[in-house]
Amino acid sequence: MRRIGLLGGSFNPAHRAHRKMSLAAMEALSLDEVWWLVSPCNPLKTAAGMASFPARLASARAVAHGSRIRVSEIEQRMGTRYSVDTVEALIRRFQSDRFIWLMGADTVAQFHQWKDWRRLAAMLPIAVLSRPGYDGPARAARAMGWLRWFVHPAATARRWTDWSAPAICLLRLPPDPTSATRLRALDPDWPTRFGSGRFDRALRSRLSQENV
Predict the structure, then answer these.
(1) What are the b/e assignments for 153-186, b being 16+ CB within 10 Å?
(2) How large a percentage of the chain has pLDDT more than 70?
(3) CB neighbours (10 Å) of residue 201?
(4) Contact in structure between 139 and 170 (CB atoms under 8 Å)
């Protein structure tokens, strides 16, 4: 049985905070792998400013390189648009593995807008990963009005496979203020470089030097 964390998102672009919080969650939850599910089309985000799927996928692969993070295009291949449908398909396909949903604290405020979010929460445990400035709003989020009845202490996070969903824990991880919004503002032409072997190698080298 593999213990796998699932982190969905646009990765527009992927960056070091994605990597750092995934690796920290891997340690806190005793995961074998984290799968980044790169969304072909996020239903809650507009197309304006959204890079192409190949560019976002390439950025995720470059940032995840050399780790136990697996970048997946399975949503595009399966044709699933919503996380609840993706998770349902993964659980059915990988019946010998155990999955936990990883969610940044910055996305919890929108969780109640997700399709069948209560059904998703009933399928697998959820770990909320802290993000600078978002931990308070995450606890006050509309969805937490229901989820708070299923909160497990972070100190028990390594035993998440013993929990019965719905189950949620809030993990405090090393802070990293990096955000995709700011990266896009500083470098709007970033999609043109991803997929270039030279650029990917430079990014991997920088992440290695920063011990990320």
Answers:
(1) eeeebeebeebebbbbbbbebeebebebeebbee
(2) 92
(3) 12
(4) yes
pLDDT tens-place string over residues 19-40 = 999 999 999 999 999 999 999 8
State how beta strands 168-171 and 69-72 pair.
unpaired
Contact criterion met (CB below 8 Å) for 167 and 152: yes
- Residue 115 · residue 86 · CB < 8 Å: no
- Say yes or no to pLDDT of 78 above 60: yes
- Over residues 159-180, mean pLDDT: 92
- Give the pLDDT of residue 207: 47
Q: How far apart are CA 183 and CA 163, in angstroms?
A: 37
* 211 torsion bin: left (phi>0), alpha (psi -120 to 50), beta (else): left
Say whether pTM exceeds 0.70: yes
CA distance 108 to 32: 25
Give yes or no for a contact between 60 and 15, defined as CB atoms under 8 angstroms apart.
no
